[in-house]
Design a protein that fits this description.
Layout lengths: L1 H21 L2 H22 L5 H20 L3 H12 L1
Length: 87
């Protein structure tokens, strides 16, 4: 069980390092948005959302927020908004 986790961590680390140094800024943002969407899917499952429609809805909501922040240049404002969302 430990060996597959170590191997997948190595693969993910190599992919992340390649993404940081090889991709242009806009492509890197899209790649990280994909990672955030996958994390939203997993978070919905971990938080008890049982239906697949609910998990898809949560992931779509996360995607809309990412799209909104990126397209309206709200990166700086999102630093101030995020504590309100946490509460």
């Amino acid at each position: 069980m430990l060996l597959p986790r170590i191997l997948s961590a190595i693969v993910m680390a190599v992919l992340f390092i390649c993404a940081v140094f090889v991709l242009e800024a806009s492509h890197f943002i899209v790649a990280m948005a994909g990672v955030v969407l996958l994390a939203g899917w997993e978070w919905a499952r971990l938080s008890g959302v049982r239906s697949q429609i609910g998990r898809i809805g949560f992931s779509v909501l996360i995607g809309v927020v990412c799209f909104w922040v990126f397209n309206f240049n709200l990166q700086k404002a999102s630093l101030y908004i995020s504590p309100l969302l946490w509460a």
